[in-house]
């Protein structure tokens, strides 16, 4: 940018390289504060607590359960989830398709289609939850599917809470995910925050699917550009680790 020849760029100077090498040795390459993936059992238990019935539950509870379920099943980051538009979600007898107009690793800005199949149990199915949310909230057109709401109204009159028409902000999303997990597990707020975060939804779905599907499809579903990035979201179980030596047949 300063019309400096590439060979003389400041970042190429041996001193800059030395600082980077020193920082890597000092800090290490291990991820800090890595949270645990959310298991399928905890997810489904929470959904049933929040939405025992699609019509009898509050719109707020239905919105939170739908958001959590689809972030888990679709490997969605928060920044992916905020770009899910009602008009770009299509429902079919076997699945749903959501066209994301923007995604983190979408270098060419071509968008990306997320495919989510219908579940065996309609009560916890991400697709059925989305259908119920759109119907209850009467959503249509180019509006956000997962919207925010007035927290003061939700605190005192949750049954009367209405969506505000704008995408849910990250602090509210994170807070609702933590509340969802507190109610499901009975753990304190501090314990939940220490163990899980919004990325736990993405890594939870990834951990379950990783051992059951072709890695190429797995990587495409999560929009990871490199295998090393995808592997960060997978937690290997004891059985998975033991499969290596069991395959040796000794």
From TrEMBL:
Region Disordered, residue ranges: 1-21
Record InterPro entries: DNA_brk_join_enz, Integrase-like_cat_sf, Phage_Integrase-like_Recomb
Top-level taxon: Eukaryota
Alphabetically ordered keywords of this record: DNA recombination
Gene Ontology terms for molecular function: DNA binding
GO biological process: DNA integration; DNA recombination
Name of the protein: Uncharacterized protein
Species per Swiss-Prot/TrEMBL record: Cymbomonas tetramitiformis
């Amino acid at each position: 940018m300063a019309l400096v020849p590439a060979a003389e760029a400041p970042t190429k100077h041996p001193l800059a390289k030395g600082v980077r090498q020193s920082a890597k040795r000092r800090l290490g390459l291990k991820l800090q504060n890595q949270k645990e993936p959310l298991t399928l059992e905890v997810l489904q238990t929470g959904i049933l607590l929040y939405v025992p019935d699609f019509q009898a539950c509050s719109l707020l509870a239905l919105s939170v359960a739908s958001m959590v379920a689809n972030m888990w099943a679709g490997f969605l980051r928060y920044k992916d989830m905020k770009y899910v538009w009602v008009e770009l979600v299509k429902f079919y007898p076997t699945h749903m398709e959501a066209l994301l107009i923007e995604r983190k690793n979408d270098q060419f800005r071509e968008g990306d289609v997320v495919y989510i199949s219908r579940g065996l149990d309609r009560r916890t199915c991400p697709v059925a939850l989305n259908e119920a949310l759109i119907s209850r909230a009467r959503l249509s057109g180019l509006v956000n599917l997962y919207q925010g709401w007035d927290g003061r109204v939700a605190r005192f009159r949750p049954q009367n809470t209405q969506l505000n028409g704008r995408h849910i902000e990250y602090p509210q999303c994170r807070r609702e995910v933590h509340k969802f997990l507190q109610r499901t597990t009975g753990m304190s707020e501090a314990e939940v925050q220490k163990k899980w975060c919004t990325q736990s939804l993405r890594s939870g779905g990834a951990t379950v699917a990783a051992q059951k599907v072709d890695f190429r499809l797995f990587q495409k579903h999560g929009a990871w550009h490199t295998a090393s990035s995808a592997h960060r979201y997978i937690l290997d179980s004891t059985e998975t680790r033991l499969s290596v030596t069991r395959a040796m047949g000794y």
